[in-house]
Automatic annotation (TrEMBL):
Mn(2+) binds at H113, H115, E120, H161. May play a role in plant defense. Probably has no oxalate oxidase activity even if the active site is conserved. Gene3D superfamilies: Jelly Rolls (2.60.120.10). It is found in: Secreted, Extracellular space, Apoplast. Residues 1-24 form the signal peptide. Pfam families: Cupin_1. This is Germin-like protein. Oxalate binds at N110, H115, E120. Transmembrane segments: none annotated. Disulfide bonds join C34-C51. It comes from Vitis vinifera (Grape). Keywords: Apoplast, Disulfide bond, Glycoprotein, Manganese, Metal-binding, Secreted, Signal. One of its GO terms (molecular function) is manganese ion binding.
Amino acid sequence: MKKMVINTLACIALSAMSFFLASASDPSPLQDFCVAVNDTKTTVFVNGKVCKDPKVATANDFFFSGLRVPGNTSNKVGSMVTPANVAQIPGLNTLGISLARVDYAPYGLNPPHTHPRATEILTVLEGTLYVGFVTSNPDNRLISKVLYKGDVFVFPEGLIHFQLNVGKTKAVAIAALSSQNPGVITIANAVFGSKPAISADVLTKAFQVDKKVVDYLQSQF
């Protein structure tokens, strides 16, 4: 009988632990909102940003007008991302969501990149985009589609993805992301433009190319 009770308690404990692990996620807000404070000299460091007293929050803490302005696409890749995350909208703190406007010149590219903390859902407002993402190892499968005005496409969290304007006119898209601070890692910039630079021995073997090719690519970033 005693052994049966012990076994039962062990099963309950394991079930509780399994439930805890399965349900672990980012904590939900414990108040209506938590407006971010940028002055870290007088505050403690937390996962995210510390909160302003809700009593002194204003409408401007929840407002950003930057997405109405087209981004300057006069650059090497022909695109510009204008973020609207917690850095621009303090009221997004703890709310787990953000936006970005992406402008594309004709044939402009938002180069392969990843968001380490967010899934992205992209809506085309204007133009035609060829978009895609690559699944994780070992398959590395490319999932891609051509999008038109009004179309929507999802890029799963952490996967490398891109958008290319395949039209002869400019294109505009709005991206919604499942984090107040999704982060972005542009693959080429990270690999060939890191500071300090990644050793050429590493990159020549990883990409199976001559050192001269690696030196050239690093010089571009």
